[in-house]
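Figure caption, in words: inputs first, then the predicted bound structure.
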Amino acid sequence: MNDHARRVYDSILGLQCDADNPTPLVRLNRVIPFKHTQVYAKLEWFNPFGAVKDRVAANLLADGEARRSVGPNQKLVEPTSGNTGMALAMLANVKGYTLTTPLSSEIPLEKRTMLRFFGADVMELQDTLCPAPGAPEGAIAKAMELGDRPDFHMLNQYVNEANPDAHYKTTGPEIWRQTGGEVSHFAAGLGTCGTITGTGRFLKEQRPDVQVLGVHPQDGHDIPGVRSLRQLEQTQLYRPDEYDHVIEVNDETAYKLCLRLNREESITAGPSCSMALAGALQLVPDEPGNLLVVIFPDNAFKYASSFVKHLPGMAAAAPGATTKSSPLLEKMRENVRGNENLTIDVDAAHDQWQAEKPFVLDVRPRDQYDDAHVPGAFNIPLAELGDDSQYLAVLPRDRDAPILSVCQRGNASLSGLLFLKSLGYRNVRSMNGGTLAWREKGFATDSK
Ligand SMILES: Cc1ncc(COP(=O)(O)O)c(C=O)c1O
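Bound structure (pyridoxal-5'-phosphate present):
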């Protein structure tokens, strides 16, 4: 027997969400500009397969089974941007079906790999990030071609009313119950539009003045799972007359807020969460009695490659940037670390920086330097120090000139110091604690 109170279940299917077992509603406290309006995030990655689409996949299958278009050993095909596919793949495993997913090769590698890992037959095609129904060679066309074959069945989340119906039956009632009927505004990112259409319908039936807010990305966006206005116009479940407002949010705003949600609220939100939140924050007034619920479709872990593209400081060090450690180099670095004539703590470095204007050599990878550096610091990443052309023109001519070697935490700068010493510089110090310690002290930094 499934027991939600003790969270003990007969099988993974017992975890599927409904009003008795809702996904959590978590209040946002730090990234919200309001005094009065309360904002809650509905964390959809608490669904059993990790996303809002678990609800849709379960209902698409239940509907197909009820209509007998889905039967034993069924071969399923569905064009999917990832989350629907992942939930369908797992449900197919439970139920003895197979799943073929034609999808765009633009979809993050993490999602394509996970689909394969879960057992789906992944067909990668040249298509936009979110497959467009009109594209003749695209994922949707390929799925339809397979779906026409008698041995396959296409569930078609883009047109199937079982998609919004999943939210009408579960997401809407959960929010209504969790807020004790106090919800005044509901916001969701727009993809297939199942979430906004189904949840919005349910909430408006309970309370007609609930504001239903849709948020979409810019044209040519890079936020997986959602669609630009141009893409939405080809989406059958997009019903703008049922929503109160629709607003656009650009990639930069979405990714920056995503970082803040993770770092300031400690909520592991993915980029479509912050896109929906950013749009809603522009639309909802700060008034007593307002209670906004925003759908957070999935979490950050699938989007490492998107974060590398859109946020500074996320990239791993370039190949070769991490110098292979040799025991001799390690020994020399240790000797430097313990030598107070060769190192300087961050307060003293700051005093020296103000008084003497030393040459500051920052040896970190470029993206870390671009993010924040000691003002005036010159960047030559450690991996490029072996290249004469990088430093000959910039290092001081005077071998007695004061120089600070700086990195992220005060380790790589020890190698920077050894390098500078090897060139004959006599007045060099490695800054303990690096740029992180400098920032923690509240000292000024520049970014690029
Ligand atoms: C990550 C993510 N965000 C948002 C959405 C949008 O939800 P819907 O398709 O219900 O409009 C989806 C849907 O695929 C998604 O996967």
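The chain has 17 helices and 15 strands.
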